[in-house]
Amino acid sequence: MKLKPLPAEPCAPPPSAGDPLEQVLAYIERRLFEPLSVALLADVAGLSPFHFSRHFTARIGESVMAYVRRRRMLRAAARLGCNPGVDDDFEAPALIDLALDCGFESQEAFTRAFAQVFGVTPGRYKRDPVRYQAAAMEKAMNQIPAVKPNVTRLEGVTRKAAFVVAGFSERIAKDNMAAIPAIWPKLRALMPFDGQTSPVCYGLCYGSNEEEGSFSYMAAAEIAPGKKPPAALTLMQVPAQTYVVFRITLAAGEIHPQMRAAMKYIFTEGLPNCGRKPSGGIDLEVYGEQFNPEKAGSVLDFYIPVEP
User: Fold this and answer.
1) What is the pLDDT of residue 11?
2) Residue 138: how many CB atoms within 10 A of its CB?
3) What is the mean predicted confidence (pLDDT) over 70-81?
4) In degrees to the nearest 10, what's the CA dihedral of 192, 194, 195, 197?
5) What is the pLDDT of residue 74?
6) Does residue 271 belong to any structural domain of this protein?
7) Which of 58-62, 103-107, 219-223, 266-270 has the lowest mean pLDDT?
8) How many domains is the chain built from?
9) 289 and 182: one domain?
10) Domain end: 141, 175, 202, which one?
11) Whole domain around residue 82: which residue ranges?
12) pLDDT at 218
C-alpha cells in the first residue's frame, strides 16, 4: 500500500536569509524520503562536507543525518497518529507499510529509529501522539545552550608554518561531547614535558565522519622536532596552513557551554561571511598567554584553514 502524501510537517527550524543552510533545509523537505547523504547536501550548501557538517550541527543542534532521520520520523508520526487538522478521514496505516514508505527495509528498523526520536515504540506513540511529539520537539529545541558568545574575527588571514604537537586525543560524537573538557586535565598533569616549546596549548579538530557527525579532538602542546614526548602522549604533525582567526572572549562560568555557543556563531555567521572558502584542514583552538580559565575576560583564538 502506497501511503497518501502529506504536506511538509511544520516543525522544521526556520532558516535565516542568506544562511547556506536555507537551500539545504528546503531540499531535505522536498526530497525527505529520497536517498540523502552528507556529501549531496554539502554540495547543495556549497561547502566542503567537513565544514558543512560542523556548520549544520552548530545551527541545528544535531548532525545532518540525525536531523534527516528525525524529520522522517516526525512526518511518519503525523501519518501514524492521524493528527487532527492533517487528515481527519485518513486511516492510520499498518506499521510495515509505513516503514517501507519511509525507506526502511523492515518494520524492526523503523521501530528502532522511531524510538530513538520519540522514546517510545510506534504502537505507544499512536495511543497518545500529541504528548510524545511535543516531548520530542522540546528535547530538540533544548540541545543548544542559550549562551551569547563574544566572538570577533581578526582582520585578514594568518599563515602558520607546519609544526608538531604531542597530546591526548578522543573520538567525539554528540553523545560524548563532555569528553572534550575531560581530556585537558590529563595533558596538564604532564606539562611541561621534555621538548615542549612553549606554554601555548592547542585543541585540534580533525578526521570528521560526516555521516556520523563525529570528529577527532586532540588536546596538545607543541614539541620540538626530534624530541620524544612522554609515552602516554601521541605525536601529530600540523601542516602549513592559511587561516581565518576568530577571537573568543569568555565570561565567568563554565567554559564548555560558551565554547559551544561560540562554535555555533562561527560556523553559522562568522565563517560564511568572511569571504574565504574553507580548505578542509585541521582546525585549531589556540590557548595562549591571554587564556586563564579562572577569570572572566579570558581569551582564546580559533583558527580555521582556508584557501590562500
Assistant:
1) 38
2) 9
3) 77
4) 10
5) 77
6) yes
7) 58-62
8) 2
9) yes
10) 141
11) 21-141
12) 97
Domain final residue pick, 141, 165, 186? 141
pLDDT, tens digit, 9 for 90 and up, residues 114-155: 887 778 888 888 777 766 766 665 555 455 445 568 999 999
Higher pLDDT, 136 or 292: 292
* Sign of the torsion formed by the C-alpha atoms of 74, 80, 81 and 82: positive
Claim to verify: residue 274 and residue 163 sit in the same structural domain:
yes
pTM above 0.70, yes or no: no
Q: What's the confidence (pLDDT) of residue 134?
A: 62
Q: Which three cell numbers stand for residue 32?
A: 525527505
Q: Are residues 74 and 190 in the same domain?
A: no
